[in-house]
Specification:
single chain, CNF1/YfiH-like putative cysteine hydrolases, metal-binding, transferase, Cytotoxic_necrot_fac-like_cat, alpha+beta, S-methyl-5-thioadenosine phosphorylase activity, 256 residues, hydrolase activity
Length: 256
């Protein structure tokens, strides 16, 4: 499966999604290591997952410092600080990279990856873990607003990728406190009540949030896979993949 801004390949029984930089000179590398025995056996452990990546890539394990937060469905973003890197794992749901000295990683099994990248004012890359709570709390907006205050962003030069995560057909919640908050915070175009269930369209809501924050529609790519439906490729917590996780690993190639 190949499209303009991503590719999905199989290697030694593992599915690997690469988010492709649309600039003439690529400035980052970002890959989601999806379903496969080595990634599955790592059980979401970032150090073991990175070793699995090295084995699949036939290369030595990267010596770059690795940011691998413990994800807790919030909006905190880790920046490039050595005390945040393995073996330390602070709680956070995003990673911001601005140099080639670090790698960032996150783990997924139905929650939605969001990748943001721009070559200006200098190359930068942001990885976000946006599940239901992260989407309702608008981790996308929080991250972009905070970054804009520090860097004076050119929103016309930001690229974004959404997914793969669980689709609106399969993600539902009971009508609890968080569901009520989701119905309040998200556009009615992105949720629907059916009896005691409320179905939420997380990828669609994330795309709307990116557009509301002035990203160009043509710069947003939604990966056409559902982590629940496309079980050949993806791990899914709702399909009882309790410990297995897809592993997002990314870094800048150039930082000037």
């Amino acid at each position: 499966m190949t499209a303009r801004n991503f590719s999905l390949d199989e290697k030694e029984g593992h599915y690997i999604l690469e988010y492709l930089c649309p600039e003439e000179k690529a400035f980052f590398k970002a890959r989601l290591f999806m379903k496969g025995s080595l990634i599955g056996k790592a059980m979401g452990d970032p150090a073991l997952s990175r070793k699995a990546v090295a084995s699949l890539s036939k290369e030595e394990t990267s010596q770059k410092k690795l940011l691998a937060p413990k994800q807790n469905h919030g909006t905190r973003i880790l920046t490039e600080r050595e005390e945040y890197c393995l073996p330390e794992r602070p709680f956070a749901d995003g990673v911001f990279l601005k140099s080639t000295l670090y790698e960032g990683s996150l783990r997924f099994a139905d929650c939605v990856p969001v990748i943001l990248a721009s070559p200006v004012p200098h190359p930068w890359l942001m990885l976000l873990h946006s599940g239901f709570k992260g989407t309702v709390q608008n981790i996308v907006k929080n991250s972009l607003v905070n970054l804009d205050q520090k860097m004076n962003l050119d929103f016309n030069r930001i690229y974004a990728w959404i997914g793969p995560g669980i689709s609106k057909t399969f993600y539902f919640r009971k009508d609890d406190e968080w569901s009520l908050l989701g119905q309040k915070e998200l556009s009615s175009a992105h949720w629907q009540k059916e009896g005691e269930r409320v179905y939420f369209d997380l990828p669609g809501a994330l795309e709307s949030q990116l557009l509301e924050n002035e990203l160009l529609e043509g710069h947003i790519t939604t990966i056409p896979l559902c982590s629940y439906k496309d079980r050949q490729y993806c791990y899914s917590y709702r399909r009882k993949d309790i410990k297995e996780r897809m592993f997002l690993l990314a870094s800048l190639i150039i930082d000037k």
